[in-house]
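Our consortium's second objective concerns turning raw sequence data into structural hypotheses that experimental partners can test. To show how far this objective has progressed, the report includes one record in full. It was chosen at random from the queue rather than selected for favorable results. The single chain below, 298 residues long, was entered without modification.
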Amino acid sequence: MTLSNEDLPVLFHHTDRAAISRQRESTQATRAQLTLLVVAAGAAALPTGPSAGPVRLFGALSALAYAGVLVVGLRAGRRRARPQWQLNRSAAEFIKSLAWRYAVHGAPFGEADAGAAQLYRTRLEAGLAELRKMGWQDPREAGLVPQGAEITGAMERLRGRDYHVRRETYVRDRLIEQRNWYRRRTEGSRRSTALWSWAIVLLTCLALVFALFEAFGSGPGARVTALLSAAAAAGIAWNEVRRHHPLIEAHTLIEQDLAAMMVVMQTTITEAQWPAAVYETERYVSPQHTDWLARHSS
């Protein structure tokens, strides 16, 4: 018995795709703004250069780049890409977590009775209603997702299996898969942190060298130093936007918690303790828990 992402409700798939799309849009907007700021600083640092009548081309390029920063910022603010990314991600992970809890008898769906399906729908609608209050756009209201498809056949089939099958499926397809996802994200964040840290150090050292040349009356002048400073600042800003370091700390801690829970689930957890254990595991992988760890990481 298996339960993969493809077996989850259509509402999950739609919100997951929306979260990925809005994340890409938000990231591209931030990258474009930082790049345009560096281009503007670089054009301003260049010599006077050719002219077209009273207009100096490098100066015009710098002005256009600054205008581009404003346009990209206004467009991103109007489309609310970042808030919609976070809301859709919260909705997708909430739906996924609730679906898994229902399918394997996690709390509060531990009882094998007919009322569990209604309780599942009630909890689902209550959670999504809170997200709608914060501006989440429910695709069911726009007719993009059909109503009444909140429970799939695969979820019902897994829910109908005995305890040992449900435990094995949950540990393999949810817990281990999620632990491996955190491990991959941690490794990727470490590589990105190292790359950007060295780039920032290199740019800062170059700016220091040119600043020393300028202090002693030689070198290409303060314009190159300003350009290098702008590039280093853009690197620092990008690193902060991506939150590599705090996410490394958070994902490492969650991976450790999931590894410990996997051992407990496979050795000591009884069927009576199973609903609470699943609930605790789902709490570990919630976006709110990750954000809390990232904010409070050293």
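The partners drew two points from this record. The longest strand covers residues 51-52. Residues 162-298 form one domain. Both points have been shared with the crystallography group to help prioritize constructs.
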